[in-house]
Amino acid sequence: MPQTVALLGVPFDAEGSFERGPALAPAAIRAALRRESSNTSTEGGLDVADPSILVDAGDLDFTGLDRAAIRARIEAGVTEVLESGSTPLILGGDHSITYPVLRAVARRFPNLNLLHFDAHSDLYDSFEGSRFSHACPFARIMEERLATRLVQVGIRTLSRPLREQATRFGVEIHEMRHWTGPISFSFEGPLYISLDIDVLDPAFAPGISHPEPGGLSVRDVLAVIQRVKAERFVGADVVELNPVNDPSPRTGLVAAKFVKELTERLYLGAS
């Protein structure tokens, strides 16, 4: 029987390296999901307004916590969702949150695979003095062997240190300079999907902090999500939406679209 998907907001952006604002994204994505300009069905016909399919677990509260305690709270919050029998769909927040999220998910699902959409590989060992920057989560994840396979899609900002890190960790990178169209990925074992909105070309997503021209289209990302095969889909996150830069709110609507399609993959479970 399919498991209910639980939205969990993680309103944290203190590890961002440029502009603040992604902490406001969980509320913005929820508002876009409720917007009457669209409906609550996925392209496959699943109605995410059905509480047996998608529930809202609210936002984590970080009042009075330092950054180490916030990471621990994120890990504990995701663990609570998993122990409730639901599959977590995380609304970030900056991309640093994926590291503590994966600590919780990997504990329950060993031999985890990661499909990562992003303009940036986020593999720096340290960035601006922080090993927990939003530029570093996948270095921490691979160091701790929280994932056995990491596939990155949409990358277009690889410096020499990042290429060296990718080689060190055996990361499979699909760079935009070689992109010819959506790829049908297949994974053995459980799969977690991490989706940074800036994987999109800024023409499709102006509401981000780090716009990088030459990215994917919304349809490219949807095609990969809809085609990917895995033994089981065990969690996902949507991160780095910056509502401060999204007055239209065009990018929030794109994020909500991704949330609906990810919900379908998580709910239906197997490929």
Q: Would you write up a description of this structure?
A:
It is a single chain. By secondary structure, the protein is of the alpha/beta class. Helices cover 31% and strands 21% of the residues. Strands 2-1-3-8-7-4-5-6 form an eight-stranded parallel β-sheet, sandwiched between helices. Helix 6 links the parallel strand 7 and strand 8. Helix 6 packs parallel to helix 7. The two termini are 14 Å apart. The mean pLDDT is 95.
Compile the SSE list and pairings.
Elements: E1 5-10, H1 25-34, E2 54-59, H2 67-83, E3 87-92, H3 98-108, E4 113-117, H4 137-143, E5 149-155, H5 160-169, E6 172-175, E7 186-196, H6 218-227, E8 229-239, H7 250-268
Parallel strand pairs: 1-2, 1-3, 3-8, 4-5, 4-7, 5-6, 7-8
Keywords, separated by commas or semicolons:
271 residues, alpha/beta, 31% helix
Strand order of the largest sheet: 2-1-3-8-7-4-5-6
Number of helices: 7
* Overall average residue pLDDT: 95
Percent of residues in β-strands: 15-25%
Cα gyration radius (Å) = 17 Å
What profile does the largest beta sheet have?
Answer: 8 strands, parallel
Mass-distribution shape: globular
Q: In summary, what is this structure?
A:
The protein has 271 residues and is α/β, with parallel strands linked by helices. It contains seven helices and eight strands. Helix content is 31%, strand content 21%.
